[in-house]
# Entry
Amino acid sequence: MSPIRAVEPGDLDALIELVHLLAEYEREPDAVEMTAAMLGDALFCADPKLFGHVAVDDSSGEVVGMALWFCNFSTWKGRHGLYLEDLFVRPDHRGRGIGQALLAELAAICVARGYGRLEWSVLDWNTPATDFYRSLGAIAMDGWTTFRLTGEALAHLGTRRATP
# Structure
């Protein structure tokens, strides 16, 4: 089993590599704009909003898995939750319990902090991931559709805000 620990500054290059591997797996290899410097600024600033954990191979010391996450809030539960932005384990290290160990670490954080939820999204076609998540007791949130504003649409809507 690979030990799980919080992300450290020396992990940034490995994390960027894992993010690129995830983007390739998710069929968007050219979508990653983030650099190691950007990730470091997000993780290690004075008031971070992004957090991360890594799985490290016992024998080589190599980072072989990651979980990047942030806090959200449920108005229905009246409590914070944890949103898992990215979970990825190198393909040659899958099937060893690393993904489960990363999720168990996040679940333990939720329990310790009194958070009400651990949530994430998964692509509809990613059957291996959905099967894995269901095996842990996770349930799909059928009936919900994710929306996103980016680029010009985001900028345009931002110009339409009411001014005092």
Summary: The mean pLDDT is 95. The chain is about 35% helix and 20% strand. The helical segments are 12-25, 36-44, 98-113, 127-135, 151-158. Residues 4-158 form a domain with the Aminopeptidase fold (CATH 3.40.630.30).
